[in-house]
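User: Hey, my collaborator sent me this sequence without any context and asked if I could get a structure. I don't really work with proteins. Can you help?
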Amino acid sequence: MDKSEARIFVTGGTGFIGSYLLRYLLQEGYLHIRALRREGSRMDLVEGIVDQVEWVTGDVCDFGSLSDSMQGVDFVFHCAGAVSFDPRDRHFLRQVNVDGTANVVNAALEAGVSRLIHVSSVAALGRSEGSNRITESSKWERGSLNSWYATTKFQGEMEVWRGVEEGLSAAVVNPSVVFGSGDWKGSGTANVFHLIGKGVPFYLAGQNGFVDVRDVVRFMVLLLEKEIVGQRFILNSANWSLKELSASIARAMDRRPPWIRISAFVGEVVWRAARILSLLTGKRAVITRETITNALQKWEYLNDKSLSLGFSYIPLSQTIEETARQWMESKGEQPAVLPI
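Assistant: No problem. I've predicted the 3D structure and written it out in structure-token form, which is a compact way to encode the shape of the chain:
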């Protein structure tokens, strides 16, 4: 592949994963990069590289804008997506994660692109009451263990595999919880550092997988360059308890580790109280039934398949230290980006 000639299109270019992907592609020598941004999107996370990317205004929910944007493109990275656990966002999640992905797939088929790399999630993988160990082959099962967000990510991924059946060359990455510097006050994981930096005393009793955002984008480009298609890959650096995670972040910020454990019973009380407060104030609840349910589970995501390609992950402790340092430098006021 001649990097200087490859024509690349990225959805979600101003978002968390998309912005890091653009930086990495430019660093690796890709010169012809077109990125999708919505009208009014903030450009904080792409500061310094704005002029090196061809920006097009559109929306994954608008097939017409996608069809126009993909003309003459060789490769597509689909990073755009919505994350929410608020019941009021159910329609929006389906619009973006399912219908939006279907539009990307259809536009890619129409444009005859050579390859599509889709950012899914470990939430789209199967899970059951009987086992907490999850691999790429874990079978999806309907049930209370799946949030609506997870359901829409699963359905969106099914649109990609439908496209494969129709002749599209595609591969899928399933990242665990993606960590790294970003918009500290936004809805992403950078907000976890902001909350702990401000002294939040609570932690939840569950366990989850975590991965550096830089590893996610490095692996996506690896799939492109190795021409791997028709496969999905869990991207996960480590499985940590939320207590261990929050304590590690707090120590890196020279803060007291959260010390109040939220049990299942307390969690039930908290999300109900948050729901009532949301109804009274009109503000969105940060804590919902789904956030509590997910945070109390103990999942273990196996990354053997990604390691089989010779890939190595940034240690989670390093990600935490670097991200915490950037939060402290700006005191959580200005968005930041980790060095690629």
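In plain terms: The radius of gyration is 19 Å. You can pass these tokens on to your collaborator as they are.
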